[in-house]
Structure formats: structure tokens, C-alpha cells
Amino acid sequence: MSSLTEKDRPIVQLLLNTGTCPRCILRFCCVGSQTLYRHPDKDLTEDLQDFLKKTQEKEGTVCLAVVDPPCKRIRLEHTQEGAEDLNHNGALPQLPSVTEGGAAVESSAGKVCNVCLGILQQFCQADFVKKVCQKVNSADYQFTSFVFSVSLPPQLSVRERAAWLGLKQEMRNLGLSLAKDDIVQLKEAYKWIIHPQLAEELGVPADGKSLFEVSVVFAHPETDEECRFLATACPDCFKPAKNKQSVFTRMAVMKALEKIKEEDFLKHFPCPPSSPKNLCDALEIQCNNGAVFVAGRYNKYSRNLPQTPWIIDGERKLESSVEELISEHLMAEFKADSFNFSSSGREDVDVRTLGNGRPFAIELVNPRRIHFTAEEMRTLQQAINNSSDKIQVRDLQLVTREAIGRMKEGEEEKTKTYSALIWTDRAIQREDIALLDDIKELKLDQKTPLRVLHRRPLAVRCRVIHTMSSEYIDEHHFRLHLKTQAGTYIKEFVHGDFGRTKPNIGSLLNRTADILELDVESVDVDWPPTLDD
């Protein structure tokens, strides 16, 4: 095995004789050749045995160990408690030669690895890869590449530390060293092996930037048992969490391993680790597509339709909403798990949105279908528009997550145009309301309106009415067109909200005023891009 050198011999010999699989041995020998890990398990074992035989023949020796003093050396084959004796005596067992330990090597070939618990053995084989791919294909996702992720049982970090500490002591006896950071990570080695197999079976390349994720969650029945000593040594690292079945999470175990002293670890856990009783379980095989974002503009023609579902104390007040009328079609076509709706501001349930509409965006979570042509998006837009006379959408298009930020950029600096039908208690003439036309850049102080005080903090907001234009109707009615700073409460500007908005139409006209109808005529946000019909 050309990747190994003489300094790797003690690592290979110790780990082979303590039940470590050949791929984990390569990891501890810091072998970075990806293709080597893909060789069959049996071939790798034979190559390692041949490597030991050749190096021993060169040196004419049968034992690596430096026996000093002899009375403290414990041969592995003499006792089943060898690993435990190591912890209490602080000494490594003498390493048997290949000839002498050949039986041990042969018998360990079919056993579960004492470091990876079978991850780099059974779960690298073709039948498991096929099982993963069957799960992916049955989920019916659209994807052109994939990223593979794996979640490992927390005690693998404990066993890896134990193997390293065992090797560290042996290497020190030989005047050598093994840096923990040089060891190839188990996840990395597993991906080296599994990526080409998944890519071939799925017919698409592995790509670390892919939005389609295939993940495998491994678990082991002895996790709590093997990690319990860490909770005793470092109790502050393990705190119960509401959504966790066990306190021994990967992060908690890693934190404890960073904190525990080496001598305390050696006292409580066999180094190298003993053979496990069980193999890992592939608990879950999951697929997830990155979110897709759809944007457009909507018009709302109903005065009895909220923007989002109107539910108070668990009771639904109205049967539908703008959000639902749009999203139900997108959810069905994109086959998503859920969605998140956002827009450039919002209108009240009794307010219409006219003109070129209000910009909106919908995040579709974990969609099965992600590829749509421009023509298919137009068809989808038409389906939404045909389904209801309460709303219409335009400029429906796929956008990026980053582009959505443009909808919210400088939101309060944007302007909006409104049309309000206003009633006054005392009769008015045309000249009475003409003064409103001459007012420019009127500054308001608006306390949080009483009607939204239950969901918004109490504050005084400064807003600006840029221009107004009045349209006389009769002695008690006129229409007012306003261009305002975004975020202005128009209803409160008209009736004053019991003096909470100053000035207001009532105070400007010196009479009581109220608003009967309000329409949003334009939302001056240049997004999303206008599409040709």
C-alpha cells in the first residue's frame, strides 16, 4: 500500500488488533487519497496485512512494542479486560506481530468497527446506496445535482478520541507523534466513498452548493451508555432541552470532550475503544430542496378580504385571504411543504388595492418541482386570476432570495398613493376643501392607532403627506387623493383617532370628518420587474 510509510506501521498494527476497520485505519494514518477509501473492505484488510508483513520482513522483527518495564505490559490476547486495564494502569498492551495476531485480524474482519460503529463498513456498500436512491426517487423531486449530508451518533466522537489517545501513547513510546487534527474526519471519508456511488445511481453530480440535499441520520442504541461518564465529569455541558430526547447531543458531547482532562478520560473509557455490541442504524433518509421564491404584484378588488388569514382566538373571521388565494395554486404546482408570504406593506380588510398592484413574494419551502418556463408561469398566473374575482396577479416570476430584499429596501422612504372617500358632519362647499390642494409636505405626528395597539408598540411616528388633491362630490362628501410617505395611517389622518394623529383632515377643515372608503392607487416600489404580457 504505497500511501503508507514506516511511521504508519504501529498505527496499523494496533488498530487492526483492536477491531478497527481498514478505512478507519487509513483515516488515522492520515491518508488523503479518496480513491483508496473506495476499495473493497476485504481488499483493504489484505493490503494492510501485506504492508505489515513486508515492513516486518525488512526489519527482521516480530514486535513493535518497547517493553519498559516488562511487568507493566499487558498482552491483548491474555485477558478480555485488557482495555479496562489500560485505563487503570495507564499502559498500552503489547502489540502482537502479524503472525501471532493473524487470528485476531481475521476474526475482526467481519466485526463492527470499534471506531466508526459500521459507518465505513456496511453503510458504504451498494445495497445501502440503492436504498438511499430508492428513497430519493420515490420522493419525486426535481434536481440537477445534490449535496449529501450525514448525521452521526454522538459517541463516535468519544470513540475517535479513545482511539487517538491509545495511539498517542504508543507513538510516544516509539518517539513518534500523531496530531489529532491530521486524522481524516469520518464524515469526510464517508462522503469520499458514497458520493461517486450516489452520483452514478442518481445520474447527477454531487455539488457542495446544490440546493437539493440528501441526508442520512444514523443512530446507535448505546449512545447514552457510552457518553454517560462525560455527564459526570462535565455536568454543565449537558442541559435538558425541550425538543431533545437525549441530553447527549453532538454539540454537548464535543463541548465535554474539549473540557475533560486526558487522565480523566483514560480512567473512564477504554483506549483504544472496545468492540461495540451493536451496529449503527440508519434512522432516517431524508430529502430536501432549497426554497424557491415567486414574486409578483396583486390587485385586491374586494372590501371584505384580508391580506392574510383573519383568525382571532382560534376562530376564523373570513373564509379566505389574498395570501391563500395566491398560495394555494403555487403550493399545488410547486408541490411544496409550506410557504411564507411577504409584501410591500399591507392594506386593511376593507381597503382595495388598485393601479399596478402591491409587490409580494412567496417563499415555497421544500418544493418537489422547481423548474418552470416563462410560459408555464404565465399559465399559472392565469389560473390564479381565473379562480377568483376578488384578486388579480401580474408579473408572476421566479426570483432569488437576494432579490426579495429589494422589496423591503428603504420601505419607509417609498411613497404610496391613495384615494379616500370622506364624509363631514357640517356642510361643505368647493372652496372649503380647496385649501387642501395647496398643502405640500405636511408633517404628521401619529401615535400608534387604537385599532392596532394590541399588536404594535405604543410610539409616535413622524410621517409626511407629500401632496393632496380634493374632488368635491356634495355637501357632505368629497374624494381626496393623497401621495404619502409609506407607513402613514390614512384612516387616522382623516378622522384624527381621538386626537392621536395631528394634524388631521378634521382639524384642517375645522369640522368632524370620517373616512367611508379607501383605495390604494399605487405602491411606488420598482420591483419585481414588469413582464411583457
Can you put this structure into words, describing what you see?
By secondary structure, the protein is an alpha+beta fold. The protein has 3 domains: 6-55 and 112-226 and 269-288, no CATH class; 291-411, Alpha-Beta Plaits, CATH 3.30.70; 416-523, Alpha-Beta Plaits (2-Layer Sandwich). The protein is 35% helix and 22% strand. It has 18 helices and 15 strands. It has helices at residues 9-17, 22-28, 34-37, 41-59, 82-89, 98-108, 126-138, 155-173, 186-202, 223-233, 250-259, 262-268, 322-334, 374-387, 401-408, 430-434, 490-495, 505-509; strands spanning 147-151, 212-219, 281-289, 292-300, 311-312, 315-316, 338-343, 352-365, 391-399, 415-424, 442-447, 460-474, 477-485, 501-502, 513-523. The strands form 3 sheets. Strands 4, 7, 8, 9, 10, 11, 12, 13, 14 and 15 form a 10-stranded mixed sheet that branches. Strands 1-2-3 form a 3-stranded mixed sheet. A hairpin with a 2-residue loop joins β12 and β13 (477-485). It is elongated, with a radius of gyration of 35 Å. 32% of the residues are buried. Mean pLDDT is 88; it is low at 60-108. InterPro entries: PsdUridine_synth_cat_dom_sf, Pus10-like, Pus10-like_C, Pus10_N_euk. Residues 293-524 form the Pus10-like C-terminal domain. One of its GO terms (cellular component) is nucleus. Belongs to the pseudouridine synthase Pus10 family. It catalyses: uridine(55) in tRNA = pseudouridine(55) in tRNA; uridine(54) in tRNA = pseudouridine(54) in tRNA.
Name the average pLDDT.
88
Give the helix tally.
18
* Poorly predicted ranges: 60-108
Radius of gyration, rounded? 35 Å
The strand count comes to 15
Task: Give the overall shape.
Answer: elongated
Which bin fits the share of residues in helices? 25-40%
Fraction of residues in β-strands: 15-25%
What count of structural domains?
3
* Class computed from helices, strands and strand pairing: alpha+beta
Largest sheet features:
10 strands, mixed
Distance between the termini: 66 Å
